[in-house]
Design a protein that fits this description.
Radius of gyration: 26 Å
Largest sheet: none
Strand content: under 5%
Number of domains: 2
Number of strands: 0
Number of helices: 22
Keywords: Ion transport, Magnesium, Membrane, Translocase, Transmembrane, Transmembrane helix, Transport
Distance between the termini: 60 Å
Structural class: mainly alpha
Order of helices and strands: HHHHHHHHHHHHHHHHHHHHHH
Subcellular location: Endomembrane system
Shape: globular
InterPro entries: PPase-energised_H-pump
EC number: 7.1.3.1
Membrane topology: Multi-pass membrane protein
Length: about 700
């Protein structure tokens, strides 16, 4: 094929043989997987059994609830392995499809290796900074009462930070790993049946989603139970169980740190490659999207995996971890104020602390049911009005929502019942229902603003008919308008959940209601109680996008491209849905984190800290600076995308000028050059905005 390209002896576009130039470099396997594959299978099996035995021993020494959480997570991991095997048994299609998929896989894995190598070095540096801060800061009353010294507290926080960063990195890698292997199988399935292609994409996304949520839950559970046993919690002269969640904050920060740079690097990569490929290919040269003649097409397809799969997995992992830990802290604080004491199965403080872990364990169960509710059919052909892929995904989401309502009610009765306020569990159950309704509202709002069937997108399409200017104006106005409904929904949910918690009947020694903040925390749990299924829909998007690119590049019949185009259009909506979902849950979680922060400040200052007075000049200025940071961060991120896209545009133009045979299929483009440009530029550009987000709070 290469010789024919060099000599120019290729037939017409449709007549030439459907073989694609081999672009594959040496495949990359992470070090940990290389070590595991070299271990004898029997030795590995024994090591796994010993590890599981140790985990369950620690869990049993902590609480039966922890054993339940471990059991659900491990079963979910086995289920994810089944989904992986099911997806990987599907055929990869003809050789030209496989070669394109291999090129995408190599590009994604190469960028991931370099990006996470950079992030890991920064994480180790930050861990040393955290260690030094904790070694020299004053101790809290809780640490003094439990005999927990500065050095112990410092090393616990650093260990939690590094574990959170590691788990977040694994979550991101898993999202990318499955997408680069499922894309070609979806492309191949689209040649037979639209429903089969949909099912493969959903189950591949489901594997990643289950692993991400499971990693977040089991990571917190292992840390909690390990500290519980190691520190002898609740024994005479040691730490109280209500103070234990404060030791977990490092885990959430580690997850946030990795998610920040994964989102930044992956986002710059995917948008710069997309803009660069489209500006020259579609606008200047007039060739279709994902055309094999475009030198930046492989970089564009790689970007879908590193930006939308790996980064989104790390992002949602961080949201869930932060929500779990903040809710555990608030649950412990409320149980302490309300003097809730006792042991399992009677009313006990651990019920309020471990409630978030139980909710997300049920999330794994109900989301798995939603994923498996999407079945394949034997009918082949293009998806038409009878079988809309968005409607099929919505049915699966409806199944998940129904099961979430049922399991949430059971969880609150099981974990949050107390004789001091017998009806409190019902109020908290309603708080969870508020959160579930908020999640559904966010999904619906995002779908309304991004789905091509609804008025906003159709209006935007009409505005495009009068030129670029009116299209940009209409698009910006639509984006600004789309913020209104989500803010209203979040506002109503926060106030409603706080009121339900406030009137739950739980009071402190002075008779003051104390359940308001915890009610908001429960609403956040309700919103994230279907996170695994929502993340499944998100992973579906880039997999379908990649599948469409592979079909276009391998010159498949138009009927196949029609199927992948419909899946791709729906995938764009599901990707936007998850962005809205993640932002909404982050808004609720930020309210919780701020409350947890106030509790931490009160512990250090030895004075109550219940409200923030913006009439104080320093506080007001702090608010202004925080608002300014959002715009400055966004400006730097957009500027980074623009500069990187310029480099891609210049490279693609250069190749079209220096290799005129590309347009006639007589010369092949240098795809690797564009991949290398975007990878190196995005890694360089992510440092400045990321440093701004981390350093600015310290400076202020």
């Amino acid at each position: 094929m290469d010789d024919e390209m060099e000599s120019g002896n290729l037939g017409a576009y449709q007549d030439r043989p459907r073989t694609f130039p081999n672009m594959r470099s040496k495949p990359y396997t992470p070090l940990i997987f290389r070590i595991l594959t070299r271990i004898n299978i029997r030795v590995l099996f024994i090591l796994v059994l010993l590890g599981l035995g140790a985990i369950f021993y620690i869990g049993a020494s902590t609480s039966p609830i922890i054993v339940f959480v471990f059991t659900v997570c491990i079963i979910s991991f086995w289920l994810s392995i089944y989904l992986t095997k099911w997806v990987l048994t599907k055929d990869e299609g003809p050789p030209e499809m496989v070669q394109i998929s291999d090129a995408i896989r190599d590009g994604a894995e190469g960028f991931f290796r370099t990006q996470y190598g950079t992030i890991s070095k920064m994480a180790i540096l930050l861990a040393l900074v955290i260690l030094s801060i904790y070694l020299f800061r004053s101790t809290t009353p809780q640490q003094e009462s439990s005999g927990l010294g500065r050095s112990t507290s410092a090393f616990i926080t650093v260990a939690a930070f590094l574990l959170g960063a590691l788990c977040s990195g694994i979550a991101g890698y898993v999202g990318m790993w499955v997408s680069v292997r499922a894309n070609v199988r979806v492309s191949s399935a689209a040649r037979r049946s639209a429903r089969e292609a949909l099912q493969i994409a959903v189950r591949a996304g489901g594997f990643s989603a289950i692993v991400v949520v499971g990693m977040a839950v089991i990571g917190v559970a292992i840390l909690y139970s390990t500290f519980y046993v190691w520190l002898g919690v609740d024994s005479p002269g040691s730490m109280k169980v209500t103070d234990l969640p404060l030791l977990l904050v490092g885990y959430g920060f580690g997850a946030s740190f990795v998610a920040l740079f994964a989102q930044l690097g992956g986002g710059i990569y995917t948008k710069a490659a997309d803009v660069g490929a489209d500006l020259v290919g579609k606008v200047e040269q007039g060739i279709p999207e994902d055309d094999p003649r475009n030198p930046a097409v492989i970089a564009d397809l790689v970007g879908d995996n590193v930006g939308d799969c790996a980064a989104r997995g790390a992002d949602l992992f961080e949201s869930i971890a932060a929500e779990i830990i903040s809710a555990m802290i608030l649950g412990g604080t409320m149980a302490q104020r309300c003097k809730i004491e006792g042991k399992f199965p009677f009313p006990y403080p651990s019920g309020f602390i471990l409630f978030p872990l139980v909710v997300h364990s049920f999330d794994l169960v109900i989301s798995s049911a939603g994923i498996f509710s999407i079945r394949g059919t034997r009918d082949s052909g293009v998806i038409g009005a009878i079988e809309d892929p968005m409607a099929i995904l919505q049915k699966g989401y409806s199944v998940t929502i129904f099961l979430a309502v049922v399991t949430f009610g059971l969880s609150t009765r099981w974990m949050l019942y107390t004789e001091q306020a017998p009806s409190a569990w019902l109020n908290f159950s309603l708080c969870g229902l508020v959160g579930i309704m908020t999640a559904y509202a966010f999904v619906w709002i995002t779908k309304y603003y991004t789905d091509y069937k609804h008025e906003p997108v159709r209006t935007l399409a009409i505005s495009s008919s009068t030129g670029h200017g009116t299209n940009i104006i209409a698009g910006v106005s639509l984006g600004l308008e789309s913020t209104a409904l989500p803010v209203l929904v979040i506002s109503v949910s926060i106030v409603s959940a706080f009121w339900l918690g406030h009137t739950s009947g739980l009071v402190d020694d002075a008779g003051n209601p104390t359940g308001g903040l915890f009610g908001t925390a429960v609403a956040t749990m309700g919103m994230l109680s279907t996170a695994a299924y929502v993340l499944t829909m998100d992973m579906f998007g880039p997999i379908a996008d990649n599948a469409g690119g592979i079909v276009e590049m391998s010159q498949q019949p138009e009927s196949v491209r029609e199927i992948t185009d419909v899946l791709d259009a729906v995938g764009n909506t599901t990707k936007a849905t998850t962005k809205g979902f993640a932002i909404g849950s982050a808004a609720l979680a930020s309210f919780l984190l701020f409350s947890a922060y106030m509790d931490e400040v009160a512990a250090f200052a030895h004075v109550p800290f219940n409200q923030v007075d913006i009439a104080i000049p320093e506080v007001f200025v702090g608010g202004l600076l925080g608002s300014m940071l959002i715009f400055l961060f966004s400006a730097w991120a957009c500027s980074a995308v623009g500069r990187t896209a310029q480099e891609v545009v210049n490279e693609v133009r250069r190749q079209f000028i220096e290799r005129p045979g590309i347009m006639d299929y007589k010369e092949k483009p240098d795809y690797g050059r564009c991949v290398a440009i975007v990878a190196s530029a995005s890694l360089k550009e992510m440092i400045k905005p990321g440093a701004l987000a981390i350093v600015s709070p310290i400076v202020v």
